[in-house]
Amino acid sequence: MFANKTTRLLLLLVAVVVLAACRSGTSTGELQGTVLDVPQEKGSFVLTDTEGAPYDFASETEDSLTLLYFGYLECPDICPVHLAQIAEVFDQHSDLAREAKVVFVSVDPDLDTLEEIREFLDNFDSRFVGLTGTHEELAAAQEAVGVPPARIFGEGDEYTVDHAGWVIAYAPDGLSYSIYPFGTRQTQWTNDLQVLAALESE
Amino acid sequence: MRITVSRNARALLASLLVLSLVAACGGNESQPNVAQVRVGAPTGPNAAVYFMARGYDEDDVLVSASTDVAGSVEFHETTTNDDGTMTMQPLPSFSLPAGGELILEPGGRHLMLIGVDDLKVGDTIDVTLTWQNAGEMTVEAVVVDPADTMGDG
C-alpha cells in the first residue's frame, strides 16, 4: 500500500514536471498558425519607409525571419494586438528580435503620414519597419504578396478601412509556410517565431 | 465573558449573513453586472474598451457611453468578410438580453474612444455606461497592453 502510494506520488510528480517543461515556452517544432497547403514565395515590391527612402521588401528582408502586416493607424481594435503580441515575443527572445524584420504597411496613405506611422510603431518596438506609398504602389504590393487589397470607404465619422486581418510570416529561407489571422494567441506566436527562425536557407 | 445567543437569534443571524453575502456578490437583479473592463493602451488617436456584461431579469440595451479622457465614444463592431479581410462598422447600440451576455472583445464589438488622452498601462479610467432600462452606471477600466486585451496573459 505504501509502495503504491509512493509510486503514485512519483508518477504524479513526473507528470507535473513534464507538463511544466511543455509549458515553459520552448518550441514544439510544429507550426501552430494557419499552415498553407503550399508554401508561398516571398513577393517583391518597393514602398517608402518612415525615413522617406525607398524600401525594396524582397532584398531588405532577404535571409531574415520576416513578418508582414497591412493595416492603418486609426484601427484601434485588431492592428495593435498583432504588433503588441510580436513585440512581446521579442522582449523575451532578444536573439529573435535581432534577426527578425517586422514590416507594417499603412494602406491609408491619405491619412497616415510617415511621421505618424513611425510614432505608432515606436509604441511597440522602434525596430519595426513602417512603409506606405501611393494607392497604386500599395495595390501592387498587396497583389505581389497575395492579400486582398484594402478598401477605404466613406469619410468623416463613417470612415472605415477593410484590410487583411492576418500577418504573413516568411522564414529565413524566403518561403511563407503559415499566416496568422486575428485571434492568434500569445503562446502560438512564441512557438512559431522560434520554429520559423530555425528554417534557414540552404 | 461568554455571549449566549438563543437558537432563534442564531438562525436570524445566519440568514442575515447569507443575505449580506448574496448582496456583496453582486446578486443585484435590477442592473447589468459589468466585469473585466479594460482599455488597450492607445497607439494612435483612438482606443478600444472591452468588457463582459451579464444580463439581469429583463432585456436591456446599452445606448451610450462616455468618459472624461476621450472626445467621444462610439459603438463599433469588427467583422470578417468572406475574403478574410476585416471591416469595422458603427452600431447604434448593444443589446443585453435578460439573463444573457454582452461580450465586448478584440475582433468583435467594442467601445471606441475617439480622440483619447495619452493613457499608460496600469492607469484606470472611469467609463459611464447608459442603459435604456437600468440607467447610468460608472465602471472603472484598466489600461492594458494591447497584447493583453485578448485576456490571454
Task: Please describe what this structure looks like.
The complex is a heterodimer of chains A (202) and B (153). The N and C termini of chain A lie far apart (58 Å). In chain A, helix 3 (79-92) packs across helix 7. Chain A has helices at 2-22, 57-60, 79-92, 94-99, 114-122, 135-145, 186-197, and strands at residues 34-41, 46-49, 54-56, 66-71, 101-106, 129-132, 151-153, 160-164, 167-170, 175-180. Chain A is of the alpha+beta class. Chain A has a single domain, classed as Glutaredoxin (3-Layer(aba) Sandwich), CATH 3.40.30.10. Chain A has 7 helices and 10 strands. The model of chain A is unreliable at 13-25 (pLDDT under 50). Chain B has a single domain (33-148), classed as PCu(A)C copper chaperone (Immunoglobulin-like), CATH 2.60.40.1890. Chain B is built from 1 helix and 10 strands, in the order αββββββββββ. In chain B, strands 1, 2, 3, 4, 5, 6, 7, 8, 9 and 10 form a 10-stranded mixed sheet that branches. The longest helix of chain B is centred in the N-terminal third of the chain and has 18 residues, at 7-24. Chain B starts with 6 loop residues before the first helix and ends in a 9-residue tail after the last strand. The model of chain B is unreliable at 21-27 (pLDDT under 50). The chains are: A alpha+beta (202), B mainly beta (153). Chain A binds chain B through residues 73-81, 83-85, 87-88, 116, 120, 123-124, 148, 150-151, 157-158, 160-166, 181-183, 185-187, and chain B through 40-48, 74, 76, 78, 80-81, 83-90, 106-107, 110, 112-113, 145-150, 152-153.
Overall structural domain count of chain B: 1
**Sheet having the most strands of chain B:** 10 strands, mixed
Overall 3D shape of chain B: globular
Specify the CATH homologous superfamily of chain A.
Answer: Glutaredoxin
What is the C-level CATH assignment of chain A?
Answer: Alpha Beta
- Unreliable segments of chain A (pLDDT under 50, ≥5 consecutive)? 13-25
In round numbers, the mean pLDDT of chain B is 86
Strand order of the largest sheet of chain A: 1-10-9-4-5-6-2-3
Q: How many domains make up the 3D coordinates of chain A?
A: 1
**Per CATH, what is the topology of chain B?**
Immunoglobulin-like
Q: How many E strands of chain B?
A: 10
In terms of per-residue confidence, which ranges of chain B show pLDDT below 50 for 5 or more consecutive residues? 21-27
Number of helices of chain A: 7
What would the average pLDDT of chain A be, to the nearest integer? 86
Strand content of chain B: over 45%
Structural class estimated from helices and strands of chain B: mainly beta
First-last Cα distance of chain A: 58 Å
